Structure formats: structure tokens, C-alpha cells
Amino acid sequence: MAAVDARGTELGRYLKARRAQVRPEDVGLPAGAGLRRTPGLRREELAALAGVSVDYYIRLERGRETNPSPAVVDALGRALRLRGDAYERLHELAELASGRIAELPASSDHAVRDSVLQMLESVRPLPAYVVSRYNRVLAANPPGRRLLPGLWDWPEDQRNLTRYVFLHPVGRALYDPWEENVALSVAHLRAVAGADPDDPELTALVGELVLKSPEFARLWERYDVCERGGGQKTFRHPKVGPITLTYEVMRLARTGGQRMVVYQAAPGSADEQAMLRLESADARPEPAPPGHPEPAGESCPAGVPSSAHASVG
Fold first, then answer.
1. Do 143 and 243 contact (CB within 8 A), yes or no?
2. So what's the pLDDT on residue 285?
3. CB neighbour class for 300 (10 Å; exposed up to 12, middle 13-18, buried from 19)
4. pTM (2 decimals)?
5. Is 171 exposed, middle or buried (0-12, 13-18, 19+ CB in 10 A)?
6. 265 in Cβ contact with 246 (< 8 Å)
7. Does the pLDDT of residue 62 top 80, yes or no?
8. Long-range contacts: 191-194, Cβ < 8 Å, 24+?
9. 278/272 Cα distance (integer angstroms)
10. 92-116 pLDDT per residue, tens
């Protein structure tokens, strides 16, 4: 019996997770009589749709086959109804399994360049922050900190946006709607995890969230993939009230996956007025994280309690 190849394990996990999300009727197959033992398509159904043998597909899903041809990968993608990021992820994992590409760098760099810190200040009054590959907040300007109430109550190495949206009590009230935002947050984390699912930072975060949050565990098993480059979020902010902001996500070169997130509002709108209150004295400021003091002239009373934020990307 062929041994399981570690390179093919993640490809197999992905195929199994995506197969579970396709109903027979979605691809023109009869649901059949009686109770199906597993959700979604059976292995033999997917193999038939993709034009491969059942034995070959089983070996692929179990990590015993690690060199599918591009034509087979395309056929599986079509059979699974994959589009966009999900389709690209299938090809990426197949390339990794075959050894045609090397693994991604194992970990993110948590040091933020001085030029990036300067850029955070230059975009004020727009809220902005920098996150690591796996959504740990590394730096933020004052309105960016105030947009995330409560995040700074946590130790520096715990300030992760995905952790916050599931485990911080304010995080479950900050985003509207919560369910949609957390689903996109998990899909984004799956996307940025890339072809290195065993990275220690990622496995520690996922292990914690799987144990503490049934919602996260359910969404992580779905293996939805969506790398977000921008969009819109609505906040039920405890200090400035309801606010809807658009945001852009910019990758920072040579950082191991750092991203800068900048929010803005429509000029002259009530949302812009609420956003500007994050910059001004009528929003009680979050304390600056160690190593990132408030700029001169910024009013920042010591000891002000804070409260929470959620997902990025």
C-alpha cells in the first residue's frame, strides 16, 4: 500500500471539505433514495463528474497520489463548482503536492518598518492599522486603535482580529451582521494560510479557536477561501454609534505577509462625522501600544479602559 505523502495531505483535506458542500442536485445528479451517510457528493460521484477513476480519486483525497495533472485539477475544480480564490487554491495545493512549487515562508515578520509607521500617521484622520499574515495587529494610528475598542486590553501577542471577533465579548456586538463577518474572516484566514497550514503561529491560533468557539470550528471545516482586498463594514461602535466604512487592504512588500488596512467614509456623510469623532477628543482614546507613543499634542489620558474589534480582510 502506498504511504501517505505529507505534501498531498492538505490537498486531500481541501477536496474532501469542498466535496461535502456540493449537493447532487447542484450538479445535475439525482439525490437518490434513503439517507446519505455523508453530506455533499460521494467520492464515486465526484470521480465520475471529473472523469477519473474512483480508485485514483480516493488516493488523491487520502494523500497517496501527489501528482495530478493540470487537466485533472481543472476537471475537479469544475466538478466542485469552484470559482475565484477557491479555484486558485485548488491549483496552488496541487502544485505544492507535486513539488512543482516550494512552500511559502513559514512565518510572518512582526516588526513594522518605520516608513510604514509614518504612513499610518500620514493617513489620519482615516483609521488604519497593520496586521500580520494571520491577522495579529502590529501597529495602528490613534483612530485605528479607537475603531477597535477593547483590543488593547489584551497582551500584545494576543491582539489578533480573528481571535477577537470570536472570543471577545464586545466583538460579537461590534460588527453588523456578525455571522457574515466571521464567515468572511475565517475564509480570509484560510486564504492567507496558503500552502503552509502547519505554520506554528497559525496552528496555535486555530487550535485555540477550535477548542473555544464551536462557530469557528464549523466554519474552519468548511474550507471556504476568500482573500479580501477591500470592501465595506458596518460597526455598532460603543463610542461613536453606528458607522459604515469602506476599507482597502494593501500588501506590504518584503514583510512575510503584513497588510495595511485603511478605512474611509463618504465625504459629507454621517458616517464621515462619526469617523472623525474617532480622531477627536470626544472619543475617549485607546492607550497606545508599547513602542508606539501618541504623537505630540494628542490627548491620551492614562488608564482609560477600552473594549474590542473583529476580523480583517
1. no
2. 43
3. middle
4. 0.67
5. buried
6. yes
7. yes
8. 191/85, 191/89, 191/225, 191/226, 191/227, 191/228, 192/133, 192/134, 192/135, 192/227, 192/257, 192/313, 193/134, 194/92, 194/104
9. 10
10. 788 877 776 655 444 456 889 999 9
